[in-house]
Specification:
- This protein has helices at 14-37, 61-77, 91-94, 115-120, 200-209, 220-228, 246-258, 292-306; strands at 51-53, 58-60, 84-87, 105-113, 126-133, 136-144, 149-154, 165-169, 175-176, 190-193, 213-216, 234-238, 262-265, 283-287.
- The radius of gyration is 19 Å and the shape is globular.
- It folds into two domains: 14-176, Fructose-1,6-Bisphosphatase, subunit A, domain 1 (Fructose-1,6-Bisphosphatase, Chain A, domain 1), CATH 3.30.540.10; 186-306, D-Maltodextrin-Binding Protein, domain 2, CATH 3.40.190.80.
- The chain is α+β, with helices and mostly antiparallel strands.
- The protein contains eight helices and 14 strands.
- Helix 1 runs antiparallel to helix 2, helix 5 (200-209) crosses helix 8 and helix 6 (220-228) packs parallel to helix 7.
- A seven-stranded mixed β-sheet has the order 3-4-5-6-7-8-9, sandwiched between helices.
């Protein structure tokens, strides 16, 4: 049997990476929780939570503080690592339209996924860290500070299989495994949806699918975590005037697929990263797995009727 392709570059072990990421992630949680409570954040960051229009949404001092914390932490721990670091907060400086970054190994970071929810005080925000090789995620971490959950997913070679592994840790390092739901029939599946990104086309699609129910969660990482806990079964992203970006999807995809779930376009195409276009356009479906093929077929058929010409 051929050995599994690596999760991390040669010369770095998964254990080394995890040993660095645990304190790095919980440090990010401490920063965000302090800002959320209006307290002095740790590690010398500014206590003022300012908000400005960042173009794609609100940018807060919390985003920037966690961004600095993660980039400096990874850079210091692995100064000679053969990877490039890309963050939502640095993308405008690093990226040129249509030009992928010249990196086989690429970190894709979202220091604060769900900024609106963070500012609204819902607690439904996350931190995403994904390591991508050749356009596919091999490692993902999704931190949910308000819930004290840190999800990890390892995908050797970027593909799910016997060597893939996913789990959740608390601050003490206690592990729990994913608990994907046993629901199978479309009529009993539970949808997790956005609170801030819904339009009539999505409402029409959901009405046509006749699923078993829905709940609303802010960040993509938080949505996928509900699938991992068995509280929901699927998440749909339907791009319209805007689309999610690489940093929204890479880490949640890695963790969900490592846990045995599925994440793809509605026509079954895999999500690709660092293509020169950070937008993940079309209809993306994340699910607990067993009903994924049927879901994709139903969604694609309904969209062909609701929005002819839309490329899923």
């Amino acid at each position: 049997m051929m050995p599994a392709a690596p999760v991390v570059p040669v010369g770095i072990s998964s254990d080394q990476l995890l040993a660095v990421l645990r304190p790095l992630c919980w440090g990010a949680a401490d920063i965000l929780l302090a800002y959320g409570r209006g307290e002095q954040p740790p590690h010398g960051f500014s206590p003022a939570l300012s908000v400005e229009d960042g173009g794609d949404g609100p940018v807060s001092a919390a985003d920037l503080a966690v961004n600095h914390w993660l980039l400096e932490g990874l850079g210091t721990a692995f100064p000679a690592a053969p990877w490039t670091l890309l963050s939502e907060e640095t993308a405008k400086q690093q990226l040129q339209p249509g030009v992928p970054l010249p990196a086989e190994w690429l970190w894709i970071l979202d220091p604060l996924d769900g900024t609106k929810d963070f500012l609204q005080g819902t607690g439904e925000y996350a931190v995403h860290l994904a390591l991508v090789c050749g356009g596919r995620p091999t490692f993902g971490a999704v931190l949910l500070p308000a819930l004290e959950e840190l999800w990890f997913g390892l995908l050797p070679g970027g593909e799910a299989g016997p060597a893939a592994e996913a789990w959740c840790e608390d601050r003490a390092g206690r592990r729990t495994l994913p608990r994907l739901s046993p629901r199978r029939a479309l009529g009993e599946l539970l949808l997790v949806a956005s609170r801030n990104h819904r339009d009539q086309r999505l409402e029409d699609l959901l009405a046509a699918l006749q699923l078993g129910g829905s709940l609303s969660i802010g960040s993509v990482g938080g949505k996928v975590a509900t699938i991992l806990r068995g509280e929901s079964d699927l998440y749909l992203s339907l791009s319209g005037r805007s689309a999610p970006k690489d940093w929204d999807m890479a880490a949640p995809e890695a963790v969900l697929r490592a846990a045995g779930g599925s994440f793809s376009h509605a026509d079954g195409r895999p999500l690709l990263y660092n293509t020169g276009d950070v937008q993940q356009s079309g209809c993306l479906i994340a699910s607990h797995g067993p009903s994924h093929g049927e879901l994709c077929g139903q969604v694609a058929a309904q969209l062909a009727s609701l929005d002819p010409g839309f490329r899923v």
